[in-house]
Design a protein that fits this description.
The chain is an alpha+beta fold and 481 residues long. The protein is built from 7 helices and 26 strands. β14 and β15 form a beta hairpin. α2 runs antiparallel to α3.
């Protein structure tokens, strides 16, 4: 019994003693001070906004076409007697010039016969009129209370004579009109596009003889996008007026291996959107393209493809920024006086592959961020690096102050260090260096320097750099793995 009690109390004593010993040792352990990690704000590059006057010209291409082009057709039948010397492909003519003559013998005979019938009808009408007057006079002399009939007064005979006379007049005019139609004259100043009939060929009414076009006015349809209309400040359903004559257009084209320029003006736009291209064409007009508008004797020939430069809307205080500065559709990041981001909504009036043009939303002297930022918010702190990127060149060396070695010569990843070489931002006479990785990175180092590596990768993508050094490429592939 005594042995059991000794065993139990001994065990309890050992447990109590161990517990007290642990508490004493724990109270003697020094307290560990915790520190919040010091997260440096991201480094960004920026450009200083400077306003400048800008005119946003619009460029398009189109084909020169005549405003008026018609087909010459015969209104009567007959054999072509002769054609004008100007009635050849490309021939020029004036309004009223005789182009085609159709044999007119049959039509002259018809005019003669119609004239004879007209004279007879006129004589019969005069005779019948005299007889009607005489009948009226006789009836009045007889007197009486009875009413005279129309037949007594010869009214039906007089009406028939008048109808015959009117028919004879119409037949004569028709014969004369057909005779006049044997001569086909030019309805305007123009040129011949195509001749389809010649002397000796028989034509019937409606037969096509040729195609001609007017040279008074040339038109060029220029397809424009919605953004182009915004640059021009022109409504979609535009028609030029005296108060709003429309923007000027400079046309250029190649003739005989030489470039020529012509000037025109936008007069109107199409009435509907093209279902195939979803664009609307503006119509540029050039007056007298073969005369006064010709440049150095070179006319604005029909069918010529020309490049058009349409004078756009002027902006007195516009800002031109790199394309990368735009975030979303209409926002930029501006660095405030306390180096904190301000999100500005801007009026983007033009965009291209490399630049954007802003007409409002920022002011002169604003520092607009040109570095890629993901997830940045209004008020976030940043570290401005300068106006132009100071491209960082990163070499992994072992040790940091030693000469660089090849990527395969590293044996201990702990020897890797980061060294940054920078070039002056204002010196653009020398090519900018490429960020490079010249040594492997251990998983620990990759985690430790992930922020620096990500920023350098962004710089490399932003500036389009590529490394062609085989050792560097091998080191990069090793780092990726």
């Amino acid at each position: 019994m005594f042995r059991k009690l000794t065993t139990v109390f001994g065990t309890l004593g050992v447990l109590v003693g161990g517990f007290l010993l642990i508490n004493i040792l724990g109270s003697l352990r020094p307290e560990v001070e915790t520190q919040e990690p010091d997260i440096a704000p991201p480094a960004v590059f920026y450009t200083v906004a400077q306003s400048q006057p800008i005119t946003l010209d619009v460029f398009a291409r189109g084909e020169v076409n005549p405003r008026t082009e018609i087909s010459l057709t015969a209104q009567i039948s007959g054999k072509v007697a002769s054609t004008s010397s100007a009635f050849v492909n490309g021939g020029a003519f004036k309004k009223g010039d005789l182009l085609i003559k159709i044999e007119d013998d049959d039509y002259r005979y018809s005019v003669t016969g119609a004239r004879s019938n007209l004279a007879q009808a006129k004589e019969l009408l005069a005779r019948e009129q005299a007889e009607a007057d005489l009948a009226q006079q006789d009836f009045e002399e007889l007197g009486g209370d009875i009413q005279a009939s129309d037949l007594t007064l010869r009214k039906p005979q007089l009406a028939q004579a008048r109808a015959n006379y009117d028919a004879a007049v119409a037949n004569f005019k028709t014969a004369q009109l057909n005779l006049d139609r044997t001569e086909i004259k030019a309805p305007f100043n123009g040129r011949v596009r195509e001749r389809l009939a010649g002397p000796g060929q028989f034509v019937s009414p409606g037969a096509q003889i040729g195609r001609i076009f007017s040279t008074d006015v040339a038109e060029i349809r220029l397809p424009l996008t919605d953004e182009d209309f915004a640059k021009l400040g022109m409504p979609i359903a535009f028609v030029a007026t005296e108060d709003n004559p429309g923007p000027d257009v400079e046309l250029s084209g190649i003739l005989a291996g030489k470039q020529y320029f012509w000037r025109g003006q936008i007069k109107r736009t199409d009435g509907a959107i093209d279902a195939a291209t979803r664009q609307i064409s503006a119509i540029a007009v050039v007056d007298d393209p073969y005369g006064a508008a010709a440049t150095d004797g070179a006319p604005l020939a029909m069918g010529l493809f020309v490049d058009a430069r349409i004078k756009g809307q002027p902006y007195n205080d516009a800002f031109v920024l790199p394309r990368i500065a735009l975030h979303g559709r209409d926002q930029v990041y501006v660095i405030g006086a306390d180096n904190r981001l301000e999100i500005r909504t801007v009026n983007v009036v033009s965009t291209s592959k490399d630049e954007i043009t802003i007409a409002g939303g920022i002011t002169n002297g604003d520092r607009v961020v040109t570095s890629p930022l993901r997830g940045a918010g209004d008020g976030d702190a940043v570290s401005p690096e300068g106006e132009a990127p100071a491209i960082a060149r990163v070499n992994f060396l072992a040790p940091a102050d030693a000469a660089p070695r090849s990527a395969t010569s590293f044996s201990d990843p702990s020897d890797i260090a980061i060294v940054t070489d920078t070039k002056s931002a204002g010196d653009i006479s020398e090519p900018r260096p490429t960020p490079r990785l010249t040594g492997p990175i251990s998983p620990g180092d990759r985690s430790r320097d992930s922020g620096v590596a990500d920023h350098l990768n962004r710089l490399q993508l932003q500036n389009g750099f590529e490394d062609t050094d085989p050792a560097v490429v091998a080191a990069q592939e090793g780092a990726k793995q």
